[in-house]
Amino acid sequence: MNTLDNIRFVLVGTTHPGNIGAAARAMKTMGLTNLHLVTPKIYPSAEATARASGADDVLARAVVHDTLDAALAGCQQVYGMSARLRHLPVPVVNPREAVSRIQQSPDDTQIAIVFGREHSGLSNEELDRCHHLVNIPANIEYSSLNLAAAVQVLAYELKMSFDPTIVVGRIGEEREAIDANDLEHLYGHFEQTLTAIGFLDPENPRNLMRRLRRLFNRAELDRNELQILHGILRAAEVKKGE
User: What are the residue boundaries of the tRNA/rRNA methyltransferase SpoU type domain, all occurrences included (predicted)?
Assistant: First the structure.
């Protein structure tokens, strides 16, 4: 399986320096740092740095080239981004399919993903240098994506394929797990209390308890939540007895 370190994002002929900074930011948020620039109109630029919003290190390491051939040197696979489905003898895939192919490539494969100019994209000659075209499915009536947005889509797909680590649970809160016996005790308490307050008719329970079981099984209760529910039920019982 390949790694993110072997993947370079190549921006060709970018006219607005802010887009370079925004692209660097999009890359860094997804763990990508290998940025190459081909004949940018204005670079370096204070605006690029400002739009990078903390991804200055990606900009500092960016390599500027005079030609696309130089930017692709050493790459065995080249994917060209294209908003228009052109009549070229090159396979067209969506970002997820492209990333799947990238992930299956040998470990040492160097890969380039090439993005064109903001207004005109990549020329046919530049697309000829690509082994695959990548098209982002979008609204047919308005399919124009900002350069940095396109970079973000590809960066996200790469991140989710190579390193889909997410924070599971609730940030900032310690959760103590409960077991099946705890849940059975809760269901028994519910049945007892709902019967006492007249909400559940034990002679005609229908599917109420079964539905409550499904509800709380989906909720994945923790110890604190379990105690809250028991407390509510006890309070209802006290109120009923007054």
Answer: 7-156
Q: How many helices (H) and strands (E) does the chain have?
A: 10, 7
**Are the beta carbons of 177 and 222 closer than 8 angstroms?**
yes
> 19: which residues sit within 8 A by CB, 6+ positions away?
11, 51, 118, 146, 147, 148
Question: Does residue 200 contact residue 208 with C-beta atoms inside 8 Å?
Answer: yes
Both 120 and 193 in one domain: the answer is: no
Q: What pLDDT digit, counting tens, does each position of 19-77 carry? A: 999 999 999 999 999 999 999 999 999 999 999 999 999 999 999 999 999 999 999 99
Total count of domains within the chain: 2
Q: Point out the domain boundary residue: 130, 162, 194.
A: 162
Report the distance separating Cα 116 and Cα 131, nearest Å: 15
Boundary residue ending a domain (162, 192, 226): 162
- Which pTM was predicted? 0.72
* 24 contacts 13 by C-beta, under 8 angstroms: no
Q: Cβ distance 190 to 212 under 8 Å?
A: yes
Write out the H or E segment, with its range, that includes residue 16: none
The range of the structural domain enclosing residue 189 comes to 180-241
In tens, the pLDDT along 148-164 reads: 999 999 999 999 998 87
CATH of the domain at 149: 3.40.1280.10
Residue 175 lies in a domain: no
